[in-house]
Amino acid sequence: MIKMVLKRLGQTILSLVVVATIIFFMFRLMPGDPTAAVVDPSISTEAREAMIQRLGLDQPLYQQYFSFLSDAVRGDLGRSFYYRRPVMEVIGDKVINTLMLMLSAMLIAYVIGILVGAYLAWKRGSKKEATLISIALTFRSAPTFWVGMLFIMFFSFRLGWFPHSGMRSSGYEAANTFEVFFSLDFLRHLFLPAVVAGLYFLATPLLMMRNTMLEVLGEDFIEMCHAKGLKEKVILYRHAARNALLPVVTTGALFLGQAIGGQVLIEYVFGWPGLGTEIIQAAQRHDYPLAQASFLLIALMVMIMNFLADLLYSYLDPRITYK
Amino acid sequence: MVKKRNIVAVLLVLVLGLIVVGCGEDEADVSVEGLTQVPEVTMYTTTAEYDPVRYEAAFMVAENWEELGVEVNVRPLEFNSLIERVFDAEEKDFNAFILGWSGRIERLDPDMFLYSNFHSSQDMPGGNNAYGYFSEEYDQLAEAQREEMEIEERQKIVHELQDMLAEDIPKIALYYRDEYQAYNHERFDNFTVMPGEGIYNEWTPVEIEPLTDDTVLEIASTQDLDTLNPMTAQTVWEWKLLRLVYDKLVRLSPDVEPTPSAAEDWEIVDDVTVDVTLRDGMDFHDGEAVTVDDVKFTFDYMLEWGVPYFDTFLNPVDSVEVVADNVVRFNLVEPYAPFITNTLAQIPILPEHIWSDVVDGEEITHPDEWDNPEPIGSGPFKFEYWRRGEEIKLAANEDHFTPPKIDGLLQVLYGHAEGVLGALEQGDADMNAWRFEPLHIEQVRELDHLTLTEAPDIGYYYTGFNLREAPFDNHDFRKAMAHTVDYDTIIDALIHGYGQAGGAGAVLSPANEFWANPDMASYEFDLERAREILEEAGYTWDSTGRLYLPEE
Predict the structure, then answer these.
(1) How far does B550 lie from chain A, in Å, by closest CA?
(2) Residue-wise DSSP of B358-414
(3) Has residue A240 been placed in a domain?
(4) Does residue B414 have a pLDDT over 70?
(5) Which among A266, A231, A245 is positioned nearest to A309, based on CA atoms?
(6) Is there a single domain that holds both residue B45 and residue B147?
C-alpha cells in the first residue's frame, strides 16, 4: 500500500512537471502582447519598455522557463502581471466561491443522479424511464446560460423567489466567516446557480449509474437476493447500487478535480464572483503567471482526486487491493 | 522574446511553404495594359465577441470599398493581438484597422488626440502614431499647442490641426456614441451629467440629495476594480472610485472648467512655473493633516517609481519644491498647456506617512505591488471595505470641504448588462456605473421610477490607415475613401441611432465644444463622388470592375 502511494506520488510529480512545461510554452506561443492589458495603449514607449523589463519578459525564454520552474518548486507561483499581486492571493479570493457553487451543484447532480439512475435501471423500458432520461439529456444539451436566463426570468423576475445576481445581498453584514457562507441570504443566492449547474451535470451520473446498474442487476447474486426474499428497495439500494457505484465514483472524483475551474457561463449569467471568469481573463490578458498557476492547480486537483478515487475503490469493492 | 519570434517565424515559413507548394502557380499576372491592380487591403478589427459594433462596422466599410473595385480582407483579431499588430509591431502588416479611443475625462484636453496620435515622434513601435503620418507643419503646430499657455491662442492652433487632419485623412472617425444612464429619482435627486463621464462623475456622489431615509447610494456596475492602489490602477474603473477617496489639487467642474479642490488657488508664474496654494485644514482619513510636504512627496514619489497611467501628465514635471508653508511650486521641463486640467486634476495626493516606507515595510520591489488594503486619502469619501467580485463600500467624510449629503456609497458588481438593468428595474440599484446597451434604452424609458440621462462621448471609434504603403499612401485615394463611409447606416443599424456621425480626421468629438473645430471640411457619403475623385487622379477599372493604380 505505502509503496503504491509512493509510486503514484512520483508519477504525479512527473506529470506536474510535464503539465507545467506545456502550460508555460502554450501561453507564450499565443499571439498578442502581454503588456497590452497591463499598460494602456496610450502610454509612452519608455514606460512600456520599463514594464516589460520589470515583468521579466525581456529575458530569453529558457531563462524565464527555468526561473518559473524553480520558483514553482519553492511554492512561489509569482505575481500576476495584471493585478501585481501574488497569484495565490488572486486565486484564493475567488476559489472558495467557485468551490461553494460547484460542490453544491455536484451534490445535487450526484445524489439525484445516483438515486434516480438506480431507480431507472429497475424501471427499464417504462415510460417513466424515457421521460426522466429525456429531461436529464435536455438539461445536458441546452446551453447553461440559456437555462440560467430562463430560470432567472421565471424565478427571479416573474415570481421574485430568488435573487438574480451575486452571492449575497448588497451591503450585508456578517459577524464571522461562517455567517458569510452559511446564512439564509447566501443560500438563497446559491440556489438558482447551483440548481442550473446541477441539472447540467445530472446526466453523467444518472446515465452511468443506470447503465452499470443494468449490468449488475443481471448478475447471479441479485437473483440470490430475490431468492432470499429481500425487499426490492433493499436489493436495489443496498446490494446492487453499491456494486454499480465504482465508475460513478471515478467520474465524481474527476469532476471534483475540475470543479476548481468553475463554470464560466453560469458564473457569468448569475454574476457569481468565481474563479472561472478570472482564469479566462488571465488567458485573454496574457497574464502568464495567473493563467499558469490556475491551470497547474486544476491539473494538480485532477491528479489528487484520481488518486483518491483509486483508494476509495478498495473500500467500495474489497476485492480490489493495491500491491 | 527573440526565441519566440523565431519559432513563430519558422512555423509561418513552413505553413506558407506548404500553401505555395499546394497552390502551385496561382500567382496570376496582375498587370493589365501595364497597370498594377490596387493591392488587396487588409483591415483589422475586433472580434464580434469583443465589440459587435466595431466588427460589423468593418464589414460595412469594406463593402463600399469593394463596390469601388478594391479587394478587402477583413480580419477580426483578439484584442491584445490587435493592439500588438497595430501599435507595437515594427513592421506594420495592415492597410487599415478599426479601433476606438475611450473618452476619459483627461482626453477632453486635445493634446492626447492631436499630439500623441499624430506627431511624427510617435511613429515607432509602441507609439500611438500607428498610421505613419508625417507632416513637418503638423509636428510644429502640435508642439506649439502643447506649449501655448494662452487658451484662446491654443484653441486657434488646435482648430488648425484639425483642419490639417481633415485634409490629410490619416484616419476617419466613424461614430461617437452617446452614453445613456439612468438613476432612481424616487430615492435620490440632483444628479450631475458630464460629457464623457455620464452621471458617474466626481460631482454626483458629493452633490446628490437623498429623498428617503436610506441614504446609501447603490451603483450597479459590471466592472470590478482591479486594485485599490493608485500607483497600480490602469483603468477608468479604479479612478471613478479612487478619486472619491483621494483628493486632487484641481477638480474639473461639470462644465469641464478647472476649479480649486485641494488647491485653494494656483498662479502661473511663468510658462514653466506654477505655484499652487494648498487649502487649509484638510485631514487625511486617519487624522493626519494634509500638508504641502505630502503634495511634494506624491509627485516626487510618482516620478521616482513611474506610474504608467500618469506617465504623460508627469513627464513635463521637472521638480516640485515647497516655497512657503502652504505653497508648492511646480517647475516644468517645458511649457505644458494641459498641466492644470490634466496633471493637477488627475494626480491624487498620497499621505507621505503611509507611502514613504511601503516598499521597505512590505518587502516588495515596487510600490505598485502593494495591496493598499485600506486606502487612506483625504477625499469626500472614506474607504470602508472591498469584497472582491461583490461590492465596495465608501462612507461619507463629513469633515471634507465639500461634504457629501449621503451617508455612503455602495458599488455592487453584476455579471452583465442584463443584471444591471434588472437591478435598476427592481429598485435594488439607484444608478448604473456605465452606459446602457442600445437595446436597453427603450426599456428604461418605460420605467416610471427611473430618469434616463444622456451624455455625449468625447472618445471616438475610427478606421485608421497605413500611410506607408499603397493604396493608402495616396492622398487622392484617401480622399475618395472618405466619401465611402455611410455614417447614417452605421449609426442607425449598429448603435440604434444613439450616437453622432464622425468624419475624416474628426478626432475631437463635437461634444468637446471648446476644442472641436465646427468648420472642418466634411466628406459626405457619396460613392459616385469617390469614383470621380479616383478617376481624376488617374485610377482606372478593368472590365470586371477591379481598380487599378494610376500610371507611374
Answers:
(1) 37
(2) HHHHTT-SSGGG---SS----SSEEEEEEETTTEEEEEE-TTSSS--SSSEEEEEE-
(3) yes
(4) yes
(5) A245
(6) yes
Q: Which residues contact B340 (CB under 8 A, 6 or more apart)?
A: B250, B258, B266, B274
Per the structure block, which three cell numbers stand in for B132? Answer: 505613419
Domain of B202? Answer: 186-222+380-448
- Classify residue A33 by its DSSP letter: -
* Domain identity same for A108 and A37: no
CA-based R_g, chain B, Å: 26
A63: chain B residues, CB-CB within 8 Å:
none
A232 and B CB contact within 8 Å:
no
Task: For residues A167 and A94, give the distance between their C-alpha atoms in angstroms, rounded to a whole number.
Answer: 12
Give residues 155 to 194 of A whose Cβ lies within 8 Å of B.
Answer: 156-157, 164-168, 170-171
User: What is residue B44's three-state secondary structure?
Assistant: strand
* Neighbour tally for A192: CB within 10 Å: 24
* Buried b or exposed e, range B404-436, using 16+ CB within 10 angstroms: bbbebbbbbbbbbbbbbbbbbbeebbbbbbbbb
Structural domain range at position A218: 94-316
Instruction: Say yes or no to pLDDT of B537 above 50.
Output: yes
- Residue ending a domain, among B313, B339, B374, is B374
For range B99-104, the mean pLDDT: 86
- Quick check: ipTM above 0.90? no
Among A45, A60, A273, the residue with its CB nearest the CB of B126 is A45
Structural domain contains residue B21: no
The nearest CA of chain A is from the CA of B383 a distance in Å of 14
- Burial category of B537 from C-beta neighbours within 10 Å (exposed 0-12, middle 13-18, buried 19 and up): middle
Tens digits of residue pLDDT in B177-187: 988 999 999 99
Residues of B in contact with A79 (CB under 8 A): 369
A36 contacts chain B (CB < 8 A):
yes
